[in-house]
Structure prediction request, 255 residues.
Amino acid sequence: MSIQLRQIALVAEFLKPMIEDLSYTLGVNPCFIDDGVSTWGLENTLLAIGHNFLEVVAPIETNTAAGRYLEHRKGNGGYMVICQASSHAEQLEVKERALACGVRIAWERETDTNHLLQLHPKDMIASFLEVDWDQHNDFDGNWEPAGGLGWKEKVDQSSIVDMVGVELQGPQPEALAQHWAQILDLPMRDDLTVVINNATLRFVEATDGRGPGLSGIDLIVAEKPGILKRAKERRAYVSDTQLTICGLHFYLATV
Prediction:
């Protein structure tokens, strides 16, 4: 089993100010806009973080799934954990386990060269889980949701080096961790974590009144003083190891 974290999606009421806050504070660059999300009444922008991505989506129409999620979560916040499978067979095994556990497929698109698979957030409890495959099988390169390879010229790791962890919260974190571990066919550790190829999924109790959700990500940073200075300017500073932007906690660790 080799599942790679490639992308975290956030949902926001308004797109532009969140992209400005994230790109300025974290020192990362917008790298792709997917016009295809308009099918769901959304607009989006992806930001490059190492070989991975931070996406923000925002509703541009009424009565969208993302808009309902904003209401449910009481504002901006985490939306999707998006991973890449190392083979099509491995991805299909995830799908089979999900269906066996009663998890619904929220959306699916399959072609000869790629297969996108989203598992329903109500059944995954804390967020969408998307597991994708494409024929390139390149964890550091081609990524269909970012348009292929054009994003590489936008990578700047002088401030943020990489995204190495995801925090998911719920009222019963142990049961939540077991559920995700079962779908991914990976062990749940005693500290309520599930380790995938390049990141750790951490499961914690929801204590902020927002219910289950994707509550934070762990970042490796190269230049913390500048990040903290910019965070204070944008009122995103919580502590020297934590920022909050777009309703998501960013936990900072140095190289």
Notes: The chain has a mean pLDDT of 97. The chain has two domains: 3-154, 160-254. The first helix runs from residue 15 to 26. The chain is about 25% helix and 40% strand.
